[in-house]
Amino acid sequence: MEITRRAYPSDVTDDEWAFLLPYLLLVREDACQRQYPLRELFNALRYVVRTGCTWRYLPHDLPPWATCYQQWARWRDARVFEALTDDLRQVLRLNEARPADPSAVIFDSRTLQSTPESGHRAGYDGAKRRKGSKVHVAVDTLGHLLAAVVTPANEQDRAQVGALAEEVQVASGQSVTLAYADQGYTGEVPAQAAEQHGIDLQVVKLGHTKRGFVLLPRRWVVERSLSWSARYKRLARDYERLAVSLQQLHYLAFAGLMLARAAGLNLLSGA
């Protein structure tokens, strides 16, 4: 099927698509049951995540929303964006003359306001005074995503250290030995949970004499990454019925950020 529409800013470029295609081919691209180009289905997904558009309000020059959603669900369940994120992270790290897998990570979380779709699994975050979901993330020292865990917002950050540490070691091949975190991760329990996975958890604290905004060592990296991901409007609130959808959309958003950086550095053609 020939694409004749005008391009949207969220559409992938030819170089990006050449890199993406092997990850997205769950069946052959010319499979008889495929009615719409796979690239257009992915462009529709990117449009939804970048603009915050609901599925049923997809523009008419993109494939039907039901077809796009079904393909997104297949990609989500196959965890293709986790694999994509892992490989893009390695490409970018090697370009910086760093080991492909990191030895240090930073933990943090963000709370997303619930919606009628996600309200059934929401919790109340007393610190943020918000009912919704909490996304716990781990990034390397360059800000690239390694792991994401979704819980109700009332779950404490320190209680998710074990799950995050386990996901980090799976993604990095057991290479991580050190993790930085804010004061929400203070205590023996989170330190022991990280140690069980071979990670030394270090809490970066704000000095008592400091006031206002302070750029803290290491911690600013994950906060910057979360602010970048917030540009994807679908992640402004928790619009997803399933927690796994919210988790995988974060992988997709970070993959988009890393893909754009790799393309800007001309790394995709030789990857």
Describe the biggest sheet? Answer: 6 strands, mixed
Order of helices and strands: HHHHEEEEHEHEHH
Which residues sit in consecutive blocks of at least 5 with pLDDT less than 50? none
* Count of helical regions: 8
Mean pLDDT: 91
Structural class: alpha/beta
Task: Choose one word for the global shape.
Answer: globular
Integer-rounded radius of gyration:
19 Å
Proportion of helical residues: 25-40%
How large a portion of the residues is in β-strands, by DSSP E? Answer: 5-15%
Strand tally, please?
6
Overall description:
Residues 101-255 form the Transposase IS4-like domain. This is IS5 family transposase. Pfam families: DDE_Tnp_1, DUF4096. InterPro entries: IS402-like_dom, Transposase_11. Residues 12-84 form the Insertion element IS402-like domain. By secondary structure, the protein is of the alpha/beta class. Helix content is 40%, strand content 15%. The chain contains eight helices and six strands. It has helices at residues 14-24, 38-51, 65-78, 80-95, 161-172, 188-195, 219-229, 243-264, and strands at residues 104-113, 123-125, 130-140, 145-152, 178-181, 200-203. Strands 1, 2, 3, 4, 5 and 6 form a six-stranded mixed sheet that branches. A hairpin with a 4-residue loop joins strand 3 and strand 4. Helix 2 crosses helix 3, helix 4 (80-95) packs parallel to helix 8 and helix 5 packs parallel to helix 6. The chain is globular, with a radius of gyration of 19 Å.
